[in-house]
Every structure is written in structure tokens, then in C-alpha cells.
Amino acid sequence: MEEELKCPVCGSLFREPIILPCSHNVCLPCARTIAVQTPETEQHLPAMLHPRGPATSSGLAAAAGSASLDYDCGAGGGGGAGGAGAGGGVDHADKLSLHSETDSGYGSYTPSLKSPNGVRVLPLVPPPPGSSAAAAAAAPRGGSTSSSLTCPQCHRSASLDHRGLRGFQRNRLLEAIVQRYQQGRAAASAAAKCQLCDRTPPEPAAVMCEQCEVFYCAACQVKCHPSRGPFAKHRLVPPPSQQGAPGGAAGASGPGGGGGTKTPGAARKPPTCADHELENYSMYCVTCRTPVCYQCLEEGKHSKHEVKPLGAMWKQHKAQLSQALNGISDKAKEAKEFLVQLKNILQQIQENGLDYEACLVAQCDALVDALTRQKAKLLTKVTKEREHKLKVVWDQINHCTLKLRQSTGLMEYCLEVIKENDPSGFLQISDALIKRVQVSQEQWVKGALEPKVSAEFDLTLDSEPLLQSIHQLDFIQMKLPPVPLLQLEKCCTRNNSVTLAWRMPPFSHNPVEGYILELDDGDGGQFREVYVGKETLCTIDGLHFNSTYNARVKAFNSSGVGPYSKTVVLQTSDVAWFTFDPSSAHRDIVLSNDNQTATCSSYDDRVVLGTAAFSKGVHYWELHVDRYDNHPDPAFGIARINVVKDMMLGKDDKAWAMYVDNNRSWFMHCNSHTNRTEGGVSKGATVGVLLDLNKHTLTFYINGQQQGPPAFENVEGVFMPALSLNRNVQVTLHTGLEVPQTVRPPKLPSN
């Protein structure tokens, strides 16, 4: 977060920050330094602006006094850090007469000073010879000039009105956060000790390295962290306990002036309107995006603008900023995980590179002397490949670390902003912060968190060629294929079928000739091959309902079979959804209603099967009788796939059924009739079929009433729902039903 709290001009923590029209912030002392005035004509330029003009020491002192631009925060008075007191020359000093190349690009004076962040800073320029400081200060007021200030970050120019720098609002929220940050940092390192000392107790820390984040005493710094070599670009700063005192004192002067240090728990004075010093902010101008007071609405420029309550807009903007932070927080978490992945790749590249070098040396040393030159070439090839991979990964690490640092700092800063209870101060910066957070989130484009290179070296040395082919010896890119990656978002189940999808990992250059998909038996048993081919999407039908299957896949090529992927667990449906199957039905069967309603064009009994096959679990479905004239005997039940389709269900040994008339029902298998039970069917009746393959029983219901004991026992195998009917009957199938929990007692057969 510290980067968010540093001025872009001086590189230090903000002191009396002001908000520029572009929403960026700058220290008030720095703003005095970079504020310039551009005369309308060169002839109005004072002689002091010309490099050949003479300058006296008294003139330099006068210019220094006039260049100290003061800032009034509404409550009056106090001077800020780096500036002069609030004297009568404030209005004149706000209009510093300099011609800046950063403002127009065509300056008569080229400033040579630069801030720590590389921003050009205009030096103080002496007044013309013979003039007094007061005259130099008053000269711009009488002349025809236009004051401006160029933002050091976005380089947009902002014109100053007659109030000068006082026309920019003070960023009280940022000032409070800087003060709180300084106090916390000073408290955390008040007694900072050297972290590398052998002495007991350690010596007090003299410096801290911002890159290493280590405290050093003077002796350890010379010994362990010299200012040369790889440490030459590291920045050594005093410990925070030594930095905090002056910075805290400067940053503690409140908007109302005064230099007193604020205590952490002290309540800040409510801010007053910049245009009406006696009025507090109470509303928010939506048009101008700024807090305003009631007097601004009655008489000022905001009288016809759209306004809303200050508190409501405060809460709304806080909510927007919090919502935007969620996205960047997720990206920061992914970036941290990505950095760990990249560092692991670095280690793997190092290890794999060493392994390849050792293997290459062993192979080449076993060959004749004629291989010596070629061996050196091949070693160079491997080294270049490794260096290339290392460079690419290091570049990614540096780039991602920079982005993560910026995002993390912005997050911490925004969280501190959200903690503030100053609505107007918050709304001064909330729009800009929300846009920054959104822009920061958009920087994490798709593919930014994926490695650009793999840790694998696709180099396999072929040592088989004859001696005359030694000079053509080279690497061949042929090795076992890598582990396929299961695409979990595309893997799914439907009824008793599962669909699996997979892909090869990125940066994989090994050829793949096909894949082998394996599935277990749904009970945790052994895996078996269910698919071999080149496709990366496969659907397996005919599985058990209410079962858990484990699946895995591997790739193969001419070098052999690669390793298995991770195992994915798939759960088939608890209940079955199916329809009548037109492909296996007798040709006289007529289906409608999306294959859920069946009738027959023949007076003879014809069989139709369902689309689901059951071999395990408990299943229940119902058939509603839409048409029935009391004469035919429809049969309901289950059958194997090869059941006879041109006679009543149950007359062969491939079907188990209950056939009914309008008064009673019978069970039938192998043309054997058993268990006659009262209770027939009529138009509007419902017949239920309960197949329990855990207990190996088949039970029937009519209108919710169980028809006798379980019709059949010891039912084992693979079965499909089945129905036989003729042209006087029409039924509609209902599936996906829960198993009945309670049943009615069966009616006893009549004598």
C-alpha cells in the first residue's frame, strides 16, 4: 500500500495532498514547485526567464519568497510542509511566472531538476535585476498570464483560477490514511534491531533495504549488503521509526491549519465548503461529482444540478468500491498461486535441464571420438533451451510480481479508504478509485496467469544411427505423451449415462495418436477400457442408476502409453427418466407425445420397450390408461432386449408381466398364470411398476394399491420397461418418480 501513499513528484509520503481535476493527487509543496504561468506573448516575459539575463543574490531570495505558494483549506491559515507562512502574498505567489516545457512543449527555459520518480521540477527563478520581492510577486497580477499545473502522472494540464492552488480541494481522506500509516509503521519498528547481527543483543538498525525488507546496522550493511554488484540498484532507507517523526509532523497539520500532531483517536473537524466557509457539506452534486452545501444549491453554480443526499451516495460508492475489490481480490489470489506455480517450474526446469545434460554427456561419451564435436553442439542446444525457458519464466515472474504488488497496494489503500467515516472526503476520490480498481482488474487478461513455457525438455537423443550418420545427429521430439487434463466443467451425467471430456496440457509438443478411457464397475471394482480412439469427448450409456463411477484417461503414441490422468468421480441419477423406444418397438406400435404415449394399429397384442436398461437399484414408473373398452388385456412389466414382440408380454421366458382386465389381474412368465388378484383397470386408471434389483423383486400397483405380494422373486439381469397392448388401449408413460413409501394392503381374491 505504501506506493499508493507516495507523491509522484517527490517520491515521499504525501504531505498536505490536493486533488487535481484528473483525480490524481500531489503534495501541496510539490504543486507549488510544478505550478507555472504562461504569458500571452514572449515580450511580457520577465528578463529573469532568459538564460542570459543577469541574476543577483537578492533577486534569487525574492523569487524564492514569491514562489512559495500557500494553500488555504477553508478553516484558515496554517502553513504546510515545505512552504512559507500564510502571508499577504498568497494570491501573488500562486501565480508563479515560469514558462514550462511540460505545459506547452515550447518553453524558453528547460528545467533540469528531476524528482525521485523522474518528474521534471521547475527550479526557482530570480526576479529581474533591480526589482523588489514585492514587485516580483505583484507582477503577474498586473500582466496578462494564465496559470496552469501539469499532472505528473497523466500529463494533463489544469488551469488555475484567481484562487491559485487554493482552488484545488484538499484530500483529507488520503492525509488521514498517510498519518495512520506513519503512526502504525513507527509503532511497529520503534525498536528496530539489526536482523543479521552476531552480537547479543543486536545493534539498532541504521538502514532498511526496501527490496530485501531487512534491517541492517552500519557494520552489517557494509559486510552483507554493499552498494555495488547486484545490490547497486537496491534502495536503502532509514528505519520507519526514524522516518515517521518528520513525516508524521508534516502530515498531521489539519485542514484548518495548525501544526499540532493528531492523536489516533482524535475526532477530525467536519469539513466545510470551499466556497462557503461556514457551511458543512450536506449534499452531493451528481453532475459535478463533488460534495456541496445548501448555500451552493441556493446561490451557487450547483443550483440547477442533480443532487442527492451525501450519506446515501457515500454508502452507494462504498458498495461499488467493495464490489469492484472482490474481482481484483480473486485475481490477486490467482496471481499468488500462479507465482508459486512459476517458481516450481523454475525448479523443475533446473532439475530437468541437469538431468538432460547428464544423460546427453553419458550417451556422447559412449560413442567414438568422432562424436566429440557434435556432442558440444548438442550441449549448447540444451543450454540455450534451458536459458530461454528460464528467461521466459523469470520475465513472467517479474511482470506478475509487479502487477500483484500494484494490485495488492491498491487493495490495501482502498480498504483503508472504506474504513473512513468522512462521506465527503470519500466521495471526492471514490469515482477515481472505482475506475482504478476496475482498470486494475481488466489488466489480468485471459491467459495472463498461464505459464508461457513448460518445464519439460522435449529433447530425446537417438544414439542408434551408424557411424557415417554421426554428423547428422540431432534431437528428436518423440517421448511418451503427458498426462491428459480432464475438463471437469464438461463432464456430466444424465440418467444412467456419463459424458467425459479431456484435453492435453498447454505447451505439450509430444505427438498423441489416441486416448484410452477407463471406467470402474460402479462399486469401486477394477477399471476396464470403455473407449479407445482419437476423440477427446466420450459418452458411455447403459450404466447402473444411483451408482458412483470412477473414470480416468491416458494418451498413447508410438513411444508407448503415458501416465493416467486424475480420477474423476461421476454419480448417475437416482431415478430414471425415459420414454418408449421407437427403434425396438413392433412396427404396429404407434407412439406420440414425444414417445411417451403408446397405442397399437393391430387387434393383436404387440410389445414396446422403454429406452432405459436397469441392472441395479430400485426403480418405479407408472402408466396412465387413456383409452380402454373393457375387452382387451394389456400387460405391464419388464423384459430383456430380445423379447418376442408379436404376442402378449410374459408368454415367453424373456418377460415378467401383470396382465389385467376390467375386474382382476394375473402375473405371467413363460406363459404361466399365477396370483389372481381382484382389481382391474378402466379408463383413467394408473398402473405402477416397482422393480427392486437390490432385493430382486417385481411389484405391481393399480391406482396406488399393491396387487398381491411381490409378483416375482429372484429377478436378476438387465431389464427394460415393457408393455403389450392392442388397438383398443392407449397408455401414457410417467417416469422420474420416487419409490412409494407406503402401500395399501391388497384385496383378497373372491371365492
Automatic annotation (TrEMBL):
COS domain mapped to chain residues: 418-476
GO cellular component: cytoplasm; cytoskeleton
Cited PROSITE patterns: B302_SPRY, COS, FN3, ZF_BBOX, ZF_RING_1
InterPro entries for the chain: B30.2/SPRY, B30.2/SPRY_sf, Bbox_C, ConA-like_dom_sf, COS_domain, E3_ligase_FN3/SPRY, FN3_dom, FN3_sf
Organism whose genome encodes this protein: Salvator merianae (Argentine black and white tegu)
Principal localisation: cytoplasm
UniProt feature, compositional bias: Gly residues: 245-262
Sorted UniProt keywords: Coiled coil, Cytoplasm, Cytoskeleton, Metal-binding, Repeat, Zinc, Zinc-finger
Domain Fibronectin type-III: 481-575
One GO BP: positive regulation of ubiquitin-dependent protein catabolic process
Name of the protein described by the UniProt record: Tripartite motif containing 67
Molecular functions (GO terms): zinc ion binding
Compositional bias per record (Low complexity), positions renumbered to this chain: 131-148
All copies of domain B30.2/SPRY, residue ranges: 557-742
Record domain B box-type: where: 192-239, 268-310
Subcellular location field: Cytoplasm, Cytoskeleton
Source organism superkingdom: Eukaryota
